[in-house]
Amino acid sequence: MRGLTKLLRQEWRMPKALMVLFVAELPFTVAALALFGIADPDLYRTSLWQEGANHGWNSDPIEILYAYANYRPIKVPTPWNQFITNWNIVISVLSMFILLVKSVMYIVHTFPPLVSTLVHILLTVLYAVSIYHQAGSDYSDPAHPSKVPWYLTKSCGPPVDPKLHGYCMQAKGAFAVTVCLFTLFATYLIFSLISLLHPRQSLKSASPALSTPSSTFYPDEKWEMEMNRLPPTTPGTTGGMKSPMTPRTLAFNVLDGNVDGNTGIKNARRVSHRELPLRHHIAMGEETWKGVDAR
User: Fold this and answer.
1) Alpha-carbon span 192 to 199, nearest angstrom
2) For the whole model, what pTM was predicted?
3) Among 51, 97, 207, 218, which residue has the fewest nearby CB atoms (within 10 Å)?
4) What tens digit of pLDDT does each residue of 274-283 get?
5) pLDDT tens digits for range 106-119
């Protein structure tokens, strides 16, 4: 349990690089969502399949219809299957959702490298499957085998039908975006593994001297030790004068002439019993202070 908690608290070694990846992922995810959404359910897939058959670049979709009509089992070639269209829709929506969630988690510091590793392993596998199906082979017609779809290896210009030029470019763009996202998620995964296997050193691990128990200070303890080193500021305590002297006492003594106002040191002369401090003028009445002589 402690090991898992430690893994969840690990920090990123390259947080700025991760922010760059977040920014770069957004436009590719939006492009994938748009391209795959436009292609659903069958905007140009069957048209491109038929165009390739017209030029002898791949099998003919009519063969599939004949096989179904004759109850003959046949498998639709991977690049022309409805499965890949549905798959691309699902992973593009999932990618957008994960991007929003992980961005918020990173901002609030709850997206550790361990979670990132698990998430991007999933995304990398999903987009690898998409690439495999988009660039799949077509061997359903032995007379016209095809290792990859023709629009990935040939130009969208002549002899291709001009009406399919835009669809051909969209198919190329969708495949390119898929490859870019796969590369991006693989980069995420590499950064996550680096931060997971080689976490950033903390202050204690970087300085062995500071990591020993005898030299480890907490803020409160360090402040208390500094305060103990300072001499007492209240007179009359340990290390100070024997009799406490407050500002009011000092003022009265200065007025009586017993203390030097500049240095605060008592004068050497002895004070007679008649030379009472000024505070007795205030505390006693005039007659009481003057005593018998005043009478």
Assistant:
1) 10
2) 0.65
3) 218
4) 454 555 555 5
5) 999 888 888 999 99
